[in-house]
Amino acid sequence: MSTKTVYSIRVPVELRKTMEELKEINWQEEIRRLVEELVKTKSKERLLADAKEIRKAMKADVSAAELIRADRDGR
Q1: DSSP per residue, 8-61
Q2: What is the pLDDT of residues 49-61, one digit of tens each?
Q3: What is the pLDDT of residue 22?
Q4: Could you report the per-residue pLDDT of 10-43, keeping only the tens digit for each?
């Protein structure tokens, strides 16, 4: 069983004609590479945004200096 699937797109006729003239380019491979790159980039952006939201929710109402002072005073 194949681990790949087909995803079709529509392009303007003029663009397709130009692509066909540029025979030295493997369009299938180039488009696949660009899609993979975009998916990785957008996934990283989404993970970073989620992490920022989690960090924002975790922030303490107390400063780091106050936490250190409380820890030292507790010894």
Answers
A1: -----HHHHHHHHH-TTS-HHHHHHHHHHHHHHHHHHHHHHHHHHHHHHHH--S
A2: 999 999 888 876 7
A3: 97
A4: 999 999 999 999 999 999 999 999 999 999 999 9
Q: Take residue 36 and report the two structure tokens written for it.
A: 């993979």
Tell me the three state secondary structure of residue 7.
coil
Give the CA count within 13 Å in the CB-facing half-sphere of 20.
Answer: 7
Tokens of residue 62, six digits? 């107390």
Measured in residues, the chain has a length of 75
Distance CA 36, CA 31 (A): 9
Sequence spans of domains, the chain: 13-73
Measure the CA–CA gap between 35 and 8, rounded to whole angstroms: 13
DSSP conformation letters of 61-73: SS-HHHHHHHHHH
How many Cα atoms within 13 Å fall on the side-chain side of residue 43? Answer: 6
